[in-house]
Write a structure and sequence with these properties.
single chain; about 350 residues; alpha/beta; TIM Barrel; 2 domains; eight-stranded parallel β-sheet; 15 helices; about 50% helix; globular; binds adenine; binds zinc ion
Length: about 350
């Protein structure tokens, strides 16, 4: 189902020529929802597997891309790919690869989901070592490419509440100017948001900002529960909120920002096509929406592609992207000095 469009919007779509699309493609961008391991290029994972003599051939297609059937199989393949990332040095190398790719897509600020489960198994001491290595690589990328990275610690929902508590303790111990939030990912169909309330309370007390995946595979009830039971200020995806217009109004009123990943949703079949995706309708209804790639190589997307597709499909022009950038910066979990510097860089002041 597509949503209605007015004449002005139809005209904007009709007016999208090569030159306009090229300018939109090259806009400086902000990304709030990027899974660190999910951003690993398949060639990078294959190279590491070869170095470590691990046979991962079953997770790749003959053309070299990741091979999976659906979202739940994707989670398995994701974890298999991640299994070759063993040391802090491996994560540092991955950080360099990710930020080179993000910078090539004109991303100037990125928040990434990092999981202590994959970085030391929830042990605080080990987590600090991984984090140190990742931050060193991020600092080097900032100097080389002018891209700023911040981390959101990620409990993985299908690993259960006990592992989430260990992740939250790691988050609380490293909360500060770089680890800026807690954000749950993983299989939304496992357990309830409130099963993870302890972890979210622990993170909040440590001064961290909160987000949780909801309304990607489950309906609007899940989004409401993330807001009410965990007190999150952002939602990962959240797009199925569109099935409950009272909830849409609530998100708009409370300025709960959605980390929307249109290409991911279409690739995984949450919506049949971008024209049937609710991002534009949610924005028109006053919800703060942002644009991200989620796990770009898995979903054959990039930030440049996301922008061009939104421009072509919904007629999002430079003014609309500037408004989206303002909302994105307001919802970013970084400190005020970083936000102000980014506002200047994006000429939003
Ligand atoms: N982990 C990585 N990508 C994810 C997604 N799209 N939803 C939930 N958990 C994820
Ligand atoms: Zn995600």
């Amino acid at each position: 189902m597509s949503y209605p469009m007015g004449e002005a919007q139809r005209q904007r779509i009709a007016d999208m020529n090569e030159e306009r699309l090229d300018a939109i493609m090259r806009l400086p961008k902000l990304e709030l929802h990027l899974h660190f391991e999910g951003a690993a290029p398949p060639a990078f994972i294959r190279g590491l597997a070869k170095e470590k003599k691990i046979d991962l051939s079953k997770i790749f297609r003959p053309d070299g891309s990741y091979d999976y059937r659906d979202f739940w199989h994707f989670l398995e393949v994701y974890e298999a790919a991640t299994s070759v990332l063993k040391t802090p040095e491996d994560f540092a190398r991955l950080c360099t690869a990710i930020l080179e790719e993000s910078a090539a897509n004109d991303v100037v600020y990125c928040e990434t989901f990092l999981s202590p489960d994959f970085c030391g198994g929830g042990d605080v001491h080990a987590w600090k070592e991984y984090l140190h290595a990742i931050r060193e690589a991020a600092d080097a990328a900032e100097r080389a490419h002018g891209i700023t990275l911040r981390g959101i610690v990620t409990p993985i929902r299908h690993f259960g509440p006990d592992k989430a508590k260990r992740a939250a303790r790691c988050a609380a111990e490293t909360a500060g100017d770089w680890i800026v939030g807690l954000g749950m990912g993983g299989d939304e169909k496992m357990g309830k948001q409130r099963d993870f309330a302890w972890s979210f309370d622990c993170a909040r007390e440590a001064g961290l900002r909160l987000t949780s995946h909801a309304g990607e595979w489950q309906g609007p009830k899940e989004v409401r529960e993330a807001v009410e039971d965990l007190g999150v200020e952002r939602i990962g995806h959240g797009v199925r909120a569109i099935e409950d217009l009272a909830l849409v109004d609530l998100l708009a009123e409370r300025e709960i920002t959605l980390e929307v990943c249109p290409g991911s949703n279409v690739f995984l079949g949450v919506f049949p096509s971008l024209s049937e995706h609710p991002i534009d309708e949610l924005r028109k209804r006053g919800v703060k929406v942002t644009v991200s790639t989620d796990d770009p190589p898995f979903f054959h997307t990039t930030m440049r592609r996301e922008y061009v597709n939104l421009a072509k499909t919904f007629g999002w022009d430079q003014d609309i992207f500037a408004a989206v950038h303002r909302d994105t910066l307001n919802a970013a979990f970084c400190d005020a000095a970083t936000r102000d510097a980014l506002a200047k860089k994006l000429e939003l002041t």
